[in-house]
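Changelog note: in this version the structure field was regenerated for every chain. One regenerated record is shown below for reference.
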Amino acid sequence: MAHVVTQACFGCKHTDCVVVCPVQCFYEGEQMLYINPDECIDCEACVPECPVDAIFHEDNVPDEWKDAIRLNAEMARQCPQITERKEPLAG
């Protein structure tokens, strides 16, 4: 089981969650972050750090964002890893 970044992250891309991840399982897309489900250890450290409440355990992803489970798995393999805090996107 893993945690998932949902569409609530789209367009803001806060990185507070990235710096608390003990296994560095976050990956950076152009508009949002992704969690690699094969690397996530389900520690939940990232959940309270997300200022837009975009991170959920995969069993608790709201129905309207269920496609984020597949999207995280796909995009984490295509995007570069992120391990440091960056400025969020404007807006």
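Spot check on this record: The CA atoms of residues 27 and 66 lie 19 Å apart. The chain has a mean pLDDT of 96.
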